[in-house]
Amino acid sequence: MGVTKTDHFTDEQNKIAVIAKALGHPARIAIIEYLLKVDTCICGDIVNKLPLAQATVSQHLKELKNAGLIKGNIEGTAICYCIDENTFAILKDYFSKIIVTVSNQKCC
Protein backbone atom coordinates (compact mmCIF):
# COMPACT_ATOMS: atom_id res chain seq x y z
CA MET A 1 0.00 0.00 0.00
CA GLY A 2 1.06 3.58 -0.63
CA VAL A 3 2.00 6.14 1.94
CA THR A 4 -0.78 8.49 3.07
CA LYS A 5 -0.17 12.16 3.73
CA THR A 6 -0.63 11.64 7.47
CA ASP A 7 2.32 9.24 7.48
CA HIS A 8 4.62 12.22 6.96
CA PHE A 9 3.70 13.69 10.35
CA THR A 10 4.24 12.61 13.95
CA ASP A 11 1.62 10.76 15.96
CA GLU A 12 1.18 13.86 18.12
CA GLN A 13 0.63 16.10 15.10
CA ASN A 14 -1.96 13.69 13.70
CA LYS A 15 -3.73 13.41 17.06
CA ILE A 16 -3.95 17.20 17.50
CA ALA A 17 -5.24 17.51 13.91
CA VAL A 18 -8.01 14.96 14.54
CA ILE A 19 -9.04 16.77 17.74
CA ALA A 20 -8.94 20.19 16.03
CA LYS A 21 -11.03 18.90 13.12
CA ALA A 22 -13.65 17.57 15.53
CA LEU A 23 -13.78 20.99 17.22
CA GLY A 24 -14.19 22.71 13.86
CA HIS A 25 -17.99 22.86 13.93
CA PRO A 26 -20.07 25.22 16.11
CA ALA A 27 -22.57 22.49 17.00
CA ARG A 28 -19.75 20.38 18.44
CA ILE A 29 -18.47 23.37 20.42
CA ALA A 30 -22.02 23.85 21.75
CA ILE A 31 -22.16 20.18 22.78
CA ILE A 32 -18.81 20.45 24.60
CA GLU A 33 -19.92 23.64 26.35
CA TYR A 34 -23.19 22.03 27.41
CA LEU A 35 -21.42 18.96 28.82
CA LEU A 36 -19.03 21.25 30.72
CA LYS A 37 -21.93 23.26 32.11
CA VAL A 38 -23.96 20.29 33.38
CA ASP A 39 -20.81 18.61 34.77
CA THR A 40 -22.35 15.13 34.58
CA CYS A 41 -23.09 12.39 32.07
CA ILE A 42 -26.05 13.27 29.85
CA CYS A 43 -28.21 10.74 28.06
CA GLY A 44 -30.95 12.50 26.11
CA ASP A 45 -30.94 16.18 27.02
CA ILE A 46 -28.42 17.22 24.36
CA VAL A 47 -30.96 17.04 21.52
CA ASN A 48 -33.32 19.32 23.45
CA LYS A 49 -30.57 21.95 23.90
CA LEU A 50 -29.59 22.31 20.23
CA PRO A 51 -31.57 23.53 17.22
CA LEU A 52 -30.71 20.37 15.30
CA ALA A 53 -32.40 17.10 14.45
CA GLN A 54 -31.69 14.08 16.63
CA ALA A 55 -29.83 12.33 13.79
CA THR A 56 -27.59 15.38 13.27
CA VAL A 57 -26.80 15.62 16.99
CA SER A 58 -25.98 11.89 17.00
CA GLN A 59 -23.53 12.40 14.12
CA HIS A 60 -21.82 15.27 15.95
CA LEU A 61 -21.59 13.15 19.12
CA LYS A 62 -20.03 10.36 17.08
CA GLU A 63 -17.37 12.74 15.70
CA LEU A 64 -16.56 14.06 19.17
CA LYS A 65 -16.34 10.54 20.55
CA ASN A 66 -14.12 9.34 17.69
CA ALA A 67 -11.74 12.23 18.38
CA GLY A 68 -11.65 11.28 22.07
CA LEU A 69 -13.21 14.54 23.27
CA ILE A 70 -16.18 12.82 24.91
CA LYS A 71 -16.87 9.39 26.35
CA GLY A 72 -20.07 7.45 25.96
CA ASN A 73 -21.41 4.73 28.24
CA ILE A 74 -24.41 2.57 27.47
CA GLU A 75 -27.07 2.76 30.16
CA GLY A 76 -30.12 0.72 29.26
CA THR A 77 -31.28 1.81 25.82
CA ALA A 78 -29.44 5.16 25.95
CA ILE A 79 -25.85 6.27 25.62
CA CYS A 80 -24.72 8.74 28.27
CA TYR A 81 -22.00 11.23 27.31
CA CYS A 82 -19.45 13.18 29.31
CA ILE A 83 -16.18 15.01 28.72
CA ASP A 84 -13.03 12.89 28.31
CA GLU A 85 -10.57 14.73 30.53
CA ASN A 86 -7.56 12.89 29.06
CA THR A 87 -7.96 14.45 25.63
CA PHE A 88 -8.44 17.91 27.10
CA ALA A 89 -5.22 17.39 29.07
CA ILE A 90 -3.46 16.73 25.74
CA LEU A 91 -4.92 19.97 24.33
CA LYS A 92 -3.95 21.91 27.44
CA ASP A 93 -0.35 20.70 27.20
CA TYR A 94 -0.18 21.42 23.46
CA PHE A 95 -1.58 24.95 23.69
CA SER A 96 0.41 25.73 26.85
CA LYS A 97 3.62 25.03 24.92
CA ILE A 98 2.47 27.32 22.12
CA ILE A 99 1.53 30.13 24.52
CA VAL A 100 4.87 29.96 26.34
CA THR A 101 6.80 29.98 23.07
CA VAL A 102 4.78 32.87 21.60
CA SER A 103 5.06 34.86 24.82
CA ASN A 104 8.85 34.56 24.73
CA GLN A 105 9.25 35.46 21.05
CA LYS A 106 10.58 38.84 20.08
CA CYS A 107 9.58 39.00 16.43
CA CYS A 108 7.06 41.07 14.42
Automatic annotation (TrEMBL):
This is Metalloregulator ArsR/SmtB family transcription factor. The keyword rRNA processing does not apply. Residues 8-106 form the HTH arsR-type domain. Keywords: DNA-binding, Transcription, Transcription regulation. SMART domains: HTH_ARSR. SUPFAM superfamilies: Winged helix' DNA-binding domain (SSF46785). It comes from Chryseobacterium salviniae. Gene3D superfamilies: Winged helix-like DNA-binding domain superfamily/Winged helix DNA-binding domain (1.10.10.10). PROSITE patterns: HTH_ARSR_2.
